[in-house]
Amino acid sequence: MITAYAVENGQLLLRDAIATAEDLAGAVWIDLCNPRPEEAALVQRALAIELPTREEMAEIESSSRLYKEGEALFLTANFLYGIETGDFASAPITFVLTPAALVTVRHATPKAFPTFAARCQRAPGLLASPDAAMLHLFEQIVDRLADILERVGSDLDRASTSAFKAADAKLRATDRGAALRAVLVTLGQVGEITARASETLLGLSRILTFVGAEKASAIRKENQGSIKTLVRDVRSLVEHANFLNNRATFLLDAVLGIINVDQSGIIKTFTVVSVALMPPTLIASIYGMNFEHMPELSWTFGYPLSLLLMVLAAVLPVLYFRRKGWL
């Protein structure tokens, strides 16, 4: 699907029924979402560029993701998407900056793209030029990542509260286990989101570094200050993502420690029970023998005496363990 954004007389013109190269005339931003081969070919003819294929966009070497052909910059990075639905992932998106238009090639829809498109309808000045459109779109992506990291921080706060409440409260073992299991699931999701957000920020940082090196020829003078602002914002978000990752690691260690303490308590209980039952088992085994000459078998009080011995043999180890503080 091709969506073209143009500005005429201060008004945003949105074109989504693109049939010929003439329909792209005057477009500042051309957005290709899951483009068909004929749609990609149409944009290539209109702008005299060669768009990367989906397989080429997935390549990870820097020379395949950041390069210049003629006057066009080709910038590719992985971007996080799908947080709203819970089915989140990362997908490569290519930004092609030409003197005539900005082209975005994507096979996923991060929320920043429809949000930026809606902003452009209210403020067409965001599309004053192709480089301005790209930098404003980057700003929207950074704002979206900041919102995601704020949400991750809130999830960590709730997980931390839940974990330590479960550790302190007098809960049943099943309730405590369910609470800690939920915390582990949350920490897993937080770790995955943080890692993918960091990947997006790393890709943006590389793009901005490359654009900064080419800004004299690719970025208008009035827009060059935005690059420095974006670099500072991305750097601050990278630091915050690292902080959240470290915090999640600490909380994971704490939860696993709590689980280990609970398991140790259960194992200790079974060990004490096993040790306490060993002497009674020994006594019962002795008097379960079928030897002919066992004088105790003919005693009148032999049975009560054996029961008493078994009880004492079970109680005395427990009392000893309590005195030592092992119980």
Describe the protein in words.
With 327 residues, the chain is α+β, with helices and mostly antiparallel strands. It folds into 2 domains: 2-262, 2-Layer Sandwich (Beta Polymerase, domain 2); 263-324, Up-down Bundle (Methane Monooxygenase Hydroxylase, Chain G, domain 1), CATH 1.20.58. Helix content is 61%, strand content 14%. The chain is built from 8 helices and 7 strands, in the order E-E-E-H-H-H-E-E-E-E-H-H-H-H-H. The radius of gyration is 34 Å and the shape is rod-shaped. The mean pLDDT is 84.
Oligomer type = single chain
**What is the CATH first-level class name of the largest domain?**
Alpha Beta
Output the CATH topology of the largest domain. Beta Polymerase, domain 2
Number of DSSP helical runs: 8
* Cα gyration radius (Å): 34 Å
Extract low-pLDDT stretches: none
- Mean pLDDT figure: 84
Biggest sheet: strands side by side, in what order?
2-1-3-7-6-5-4
Proper CATH architecture of the largest domain: 2-Layer Sandwich
Q: Structurally, how many domains make up the residues?
A: 2
The amount of beta strand, in percent, is 5-15%
The chain-level structural class is: alpha+beta
The number of E-state strands comes to 7
Main sheet record: 7 strands, mixed
Shape verdict: rod-shaped
Please give the alpha-carbon distance between the first and last residues: 69 Å
The level of helicity is 55-70%
